Amino acid sequence: MLELPLIAKSVVSHFQQCVREDKALELYHAGIEALAVQVSMPFSMDTSVAQYVSFNVFTHFLEGLRKVLPSEVFVSALLGSAERAVFELAFPHLSAQDFLSLFPFEQWSVESSSQSLKLSFLVSNSSLNGIEAELFLIVYSHAYFKSQQTDINKPVRYDLVSVSASALSELRIQTETPQFIGQNETCISYNPIDRDCSIKAVSTATTSTFKVTQALLPYIGRVDVDLVMFGQINRMGKRTIQRALSEEGTTFRTIKEALSFEFAKRVMTEQGYSISDIALHLGYADASQFIRAFKRANGITPYQWKKGHVE
């Protein structure tokens, strides 16, 4: 099965909104916009039916953001967006399982006793290519936990999977709090509280087909992403993707065509796009090529489908 972690579109869109609205970042907005294009971040996500974004792509964006921004500004942006997310993404009303489903966690848990209080999470190996992604998940996990247990104090220890001491030092994050790198799991330790708040949430297994479908969907009708480009922006080999999908009886082309035709049907129904416009948006050479592909998959032409579904 592919290691292709996903993050909820709502979280990514909210983070980007916070970055755009942060007055302290005004001088860097042009660089940030250029970065989003450079790493192939999905755009116009508010009009997309996608529910998720590739966490690999978002991680690439975070890594670039740390280079664009001074260290203290980058850390401040992470903290500020997480603080806003508590209210604007309704963290106090989310169960641990609901929170886990927004992020690429495989497991998210709290162990509580009279001697210790520890929040930990596990993600796939590919999710933590750099320290930026791990810090993002730490900041949001702490913000969520604080919204659930309002009387917890500041963390007293951090355990990080990341092994780069230099990157951590460059960010100058709360040097008074002990930080241990190269650990087996990410962990935030707190002073214990006088009640048991232990909880454990585990993600549901998903197929490679589901992961590729969700990671590709934000680009449909916006950018023509082929298999090679999909592999590049997700940091995985073309053959790795092909092999995983083949084991499930499908191909990248099959998935892409199905998503493209769903996009075509939706915009024909809701927005009245012409066949030529749709073909252009989906990356076809011309309308006739799109019509042939549509008929091959659906048994009728787009015109015939539109006539039967649009009043």
Strands of the largest sheet, in order across it? 6-5-7-4-3-8
Task: Label the overall shape.
Answer: elongated
Q: What is the CATH top level name of the largest domain?
A: Alpha Beta
Output the CATH homologous superfamily of the largest domain. Answer: H-NOX domain
Sequence stretches where pLDDT stays below 50 over 5 or more residues: none
What is the second-level CATH architecture of the largest domain? Alpha-Beta Complex
Amino- and carboxy-terminal Cα gap: 43 Å
Number of discrete helical segments: 14
CATH fold-level name of the largest domain? H-NOX domain
Number of domains: 2
Order of helices and strands: EHHEHHHEEHEHEEEHHHHHHH
DSSP helix fraction: 40-55%
What's the story with the biggest beta sheet? 6 strands, mixed
Report the mean per-residue pLDDT as an integer. 91
β content, as a range?
Answer: 5-15%
Count of DSSP strands: 8
Helices and strands: which structural class?
A: alpha+beta
Q: Specify Rg, calculated over alpha carbons.
A: 22 Å
